[in-house]
Known about the structure:
Number of strands of chain A: 9
Distance between the termini of chain B: 63 Å
Strand content of chain B: 5-15%
Oligomer: heterodimer
Distance between the termini of chain A: 48 Å
CATH architecture of the largest domain in chain B: Alpha-Beta Complex
Strand order of the largest sheet of chain B: 3-4-5
Helix content of chain A: 25-40%
Order of helices and strands of chain A: HEHEEHEEHEEHHEHEHH
Helix content of chain B: 10-25%
Low-confidence stretches of chain B: 15-25
Largest sheet of chain A: 3 strands, mixed
Order of helices and strands of chain B: HEEHHEEHHHHEHHHEHE
CATH class of the largest domain in chain A: Alpha Beta
Low-confidence stretches of chain A: 18-31
Number of domains of chain B: 4
Largest sheet of chain B: 3 strands, antiparallel
Largest interface: A-B, 29 and 25 residues
CATH architecture of the largest domain in chain A: 2-Layer Sandwich
Amino acid sequence: MPKQSRRDFFKTTAALSAVTAGVTSTKIKAESKDYIPDKAMGVLIDTTACIGCRRCEWACKVAHDMPTASLDTYNDRTVFNEMRRPDHTALTIVNEYPGKELDQFPIDVKFQCMHCNSPACVSACIVKAFHKHPNGTVTWDGDKCIGCRYCMVACPFQIPAFEFDKAIEPDIKKCDFCFERTKVGKLPACVEICPNEVLTYGKREELIDIAHKRIELYPDKYIDHVFGEFEVGGTSWMYLSSKEMPKLGLPDLPRATAPGVSESIQHGLFAYFVPPLALYAILGGVMWINKNRKNSDTEE
Amino acid sequence: MKKNLLIFTLVLFSSAFIFGQNKKAAVDHSQVKGLTCKTCHSCDIPTKENPCLINCPRDLMVTIYQKPKDAPAEIIINKVKDNKDLYTPVKFTHLAHAEMAEMSGGCISCHHYNPPGDVIPCSNCHEPKRKREDITKPDLKGAYHRLCNDCHRAWSGKNDCNACHTLNAQYAGGKKQPIISKDKKRIHPEIKTPEIIKYETPKTNKGKMVNFAHTQHINTFGLECQSCHKNDACIKCHDQRDKSNAKPATFTQKHKNCLACHDTNNNSKCNMCHTNDAKDVRFNHKARTGFDLSKFHSKLSCVRCHTTKGKFTGLSSKCSSCHGAWDLTNFNHAKTGLKFDETHAEFECESCHKDAVYNKPDCSDCHDDKTYPKDKPGKLVR
C-alpha cells in the first residue's frame, strides 16, 4: 500500500465529502476580491540566475531579528545535500536541484510564502488572524491567533510554521514580504541583498509581462511557464526556470483558488441544509425498511 | 508648390545638420553600414550631448572588435554604493580578463554587442539603484555579478564572495580599506598548444584512439584559436567539478570540429583518424601532395579548393586549375614579394617560369651569367 501523507488524507476525505454531497456542479471561484491588480506587488524569481549563495536567508533572519550564524557560514554548500523547508527558524530557504543536463550547473531555488492572490490561510482562519493587504502581502496577527493551525493544513505550499518547541505563546511563523520595510518604501530584505538580482520586485502585472518577454527572448533558456501566474488563482511570488517546476519542488497545482475549492466543498456540503436532510431521510428510510422487515419476521 | 519647396529646404537643412553632428560624434559612422539612423537612435536629430540611443537589445546591431590592450588594465568597480555595504569595492583586472575573453567571444562576451564608438559603460543601461522604475533589465549590481559568476562559479563550483571582495566590517573604522588586488600586469599565461592530442575512444569499434595533429592543423591551415574553440568557456581547462557524472557527448557533438573539413558521416572513412596504435598521423600537405600551402594558401579553408566535402584527392597542382589563366593584366607580381624592375615588368609569365606551377624562374634565355635567387629581376618588397 502506498504511503499516505497527512495531506493526501485530507485531500481524499475532502473529495469524498464533496462527491457524497453532490456538489459537482458548484462553481469554483476564479478571482479573489482581495487581489487589486493596480496595487499588488510581487517578486519574480529567475532561478536561472541564482547561484545558491544563500545571502537571502541571512538577510531575512537579520531583518526579522531572528538568531543567525555569521555570514561566512552561509558559504557552506553541504546544506544542499538535503531538501529543506521554511520553518519557524527560517522564513526562506534555498534548495538545490540537479541541472537541466547532467553536466550543467545545479539549479538553486529560493522558497518562501507565495503570498497568494486568494490565500487559503486567510480563508481557513476562523478568527481572522491572517490578513491580505492591498499590496499583496499576507500577514499574521499574533493577538488574534488561537493556535488552531488550520492555516497549516489549508496552505497549498505548506508554509505557515508553528513554534512547537514553545510551550508559552507559540507563534505562527511565515514570510511577511517584509511588510514593515515595504511600508516605508524599502525593498524586501532578500530582494535588496541578492547579488545577482535573481529576485525582481515590482508590480505583479508588470512582472508577468517581463517574465513572458524573457521567455520569448530566450526560448532555449526558459521553459514556457511562469509559476504563480495562474497557480491557485495566482501568487505574488512567481518563478521562471529552465526545468519543469515540479522537479524543482514547486508543486503541480490547479488554477482554481485553494479557498475556492475548500469553500465550495463546505458551502456545497451544507447548501440550504438539503444534503444533510437528504442524508437523514435516506438513513430514516433504511431504518423504516429494516423495522418493517423485523415486524414481518416476527409475524411469521 | 511653395509648400513642397519649404519641405525640401527643411529636409536639406536637417540632413546637413545631422551630417555636421555626426562629424563631431565619437562614433565612427563609417563602420556603420547597411543600417538606418533609426536602428540605433530613437530621435530624428541625435546629438553628441543627446544621442538618444535605443536601449539594447536592438533588432540589428553593429559589433566592432577591439584589442585587449586598447582598454584599461584595471578598473575599480565602485559604482554600486550603499551605506550598509557588506563588502569593499572590487579591483577588476580588465586586461587579464579581456585576454581570457579572446579565447572565446572577445569583448562581446561581456559588453553585449559592443557597438562602434567608445565602449559603453555597464552603468549606462544598468541602473545603480535596485529600487527603480525600469525593472526589465537587471540593476548594475545584478548585471556585474551575473557576468562574473558565469565563469567564477564554473571555475571552482563555489560561491565565495571573498574571492573578489573584502568584508567591510573587518576594516570598519580604518581609513584605508583594502581592495583585493592582483598584479596590474597579470595576464593569462600563454597557452601551450599540444603537438598531438590523443583521444581515447574505447567505446567505438573503429579503432581505440584518434591521434589529432593539433599543431599541424594550426600551421597548415593557418587557424586561430577561436576557429575551433569559440564556444569554450574557462572551465574547458579549469573545471574542478566532478566530471564523472557528465553526460556523454553525442556522435555529432564529438565530431563537430572535424565536420567542417572531414566527412565524418561516411562510415567507410573512419580509419582516416581512428586507429589502434599511436601512429604519427601528422599530415603534411607539401610532403604528401607536393603542394606547399604555407606560402600563399595557409588562410584558406579546405573547402575553398576541395569543393567536394570529404573528397580531398584529384586536384591539379597547376595554378590555372583554380585561378584561371594568369597573364600580365591580371597578376600583380608584387604580391609574391618581388616587385619587378622596369626591364622585367613587360615580360610574359612564361618567359621566365617555364613550368605551369610558377616555381623557380629560369634566367638562361637572356642571361648567361645570372641565376635566381642569387640575382633578382627586381626588388624584394617583403
